[in-house]
Amino acid sequence: MAEGGAPVTMSDVARLAGVSTATVSRVVNGRYGVSASTIAQVRSAIERLGYESSLVAASLRRTRTNVLGLVTHSFQSYTAEVLKGVMDALTQSGFDLIIYANSDVYGTYSEGWEQRHLTRLSGTLTDGCIVVTPWGEVRTSTPVVVIDPVRDSTVPSVTADNLTGATTAVEHLLGLGHRRIGFIAGRSSLAAAWSREEGYRKALAEAGVPVDPALIGRGDFNPESAAPLARALLERPDRPTAIFAASDGMALKVLEVAKEMGIDVPGDLSVVGFDNIPESALAEPRLTTVDQSMYRLGHEAAHMLKSLVTGEWEGPRQILLPTRLLVRGSTAPVRVATRP
């Protein structure tokens, strides 16, 4: 404790060691550019001030905090399933987990949120972080693994085979006789959203079905963004007989809008989602979807991050996991009467 019983701060350490707080920060984070004698001074000051009770002091003694971080914009069903996988991977690993999320769920998105969170967590509190669906490329001095990165990302990442999953979903609809298939896309900056749209286009092209731009709605994975898009598609005189949504949350909103409009699913409209969140199996009708094993995404990301922190990772920097189509009650053969 500092004078008066106040918690010891980095400034207290710097003052006693006769160095700047920036130098203390470099020592704490294990960065280069600090001489051995200065490192010894800082360590001595920490010991004298009783600073070793904090995570930072512990990290100085053993070079690691043995704490990993998970950074996400908000907690939804997708994130919760990912977290289950992360926690199971860390069981008995010696690593604890800090979770950092924004306070709003579908409120105002602020660009750069992931970088701000990483700056707060990296180095002094955590040895590395998992970032879930960032809005931009992330950069940090400590190891990081991204789940669902942005397009052209170069950081270590784990993602599902979104292209194959989306292609399979649309092929399923084509196999049921659907030709006017609507698509509600996700946030375009994410590689996952881009790949799912590519899968939609690929399946149609291979079946000889022209892509109709009027049947594509631009969402952002926020379920609320899908409601007006679904309504616009279903109010068309030549409305689609099927809709593929880039996420289960948006697909469930399509089901809701169809019910409000008196459109029978799957009799008059087939709907397919992507994710396999728990709610998809509880919907009425149960949602046909692409299972991307969110649990495994989290488990693999945590395993990779642990190994990166300990210097034991020898696998690829980008991991692609398989997907599978789960056919449930929201898809059926097209009715001849509904064809345009």
Task: Note down, in words, how this protein is organized.
By secondary structure, this protein is an alpha/beta fold. It has 3 domains: 10-53, Orthogonal Bundle (434 Repressor (Amino-terminal Domain)); 67-159 and 294-321, Rossmann fold; 162-292, Response regulator (Rossmann fold, 3-Layer(aba) Sandwich), CATH 3.40.50. It is 39% helix and 16% strand. It has helices at 10-17, 21-28, 36-49, 55-62, 77-90, 113-121, 162-175, 191-206, 223-234, 248-260, 294-310, and strands at residues 67-72, 96-101, 128-132, 144-147, 157-160, 181-185, 216-218, 242-245, 270-275, 288-291, 318-321, 324-326. Strand 6 (181-185), helix 8 (191-206) and strand 7 (216-218) form a beta-alpha-beta unit. Helix 1 (10-17) crosses helix 2 and helix 9 (223-234) packs across helix 10. It is elongated, with a radius of gyration of 25 Å. The model has no long low-confidence stretch (mean pLDDT 87).
Quick synopsis:
The chain contains eleven helices and twelve strands. It is of the alpha/beta class. Strand 6, helix 8 and strand 7 form a beta-alpha-beta unit.
Fraction in helix: 25-40%
CATH fold-level name of the largest domain: Rossmann fold
Main beta sheet strand tally, sense and closure: 6 strands, parallel
Number of domains: 3
The CATH architecture of the largest domain is: 3-Layer(aba) Sandwich
Helix count?
11
General form: elongated
Instruction: Report the top-level CATH class of the largest domain.
Output: Alpha Beta
- Strand count: 12
- Roughly what fraction of the amino acids lie in strands? 15-25%
Average pLDDT score: 87
- The N- to C-terminal Cα distance equals 77 Å
CATH superfamily of the largest domain, by name, is Response regulator
Structural class: alpha/beta
Low-confidence stretches: none
Domain HTH cro/C1-type: 9-42
Protein name: Transcriptional regulator, LacI family
InterPro entries: Cro/C1-type_HTH, HTH_LacI, LacI/GalR-like_sensor, Lambda_DNA-bd_dom_sf, Peripla_BP_I
Keywords: DNA-binding, Transcription, Transcription regulation
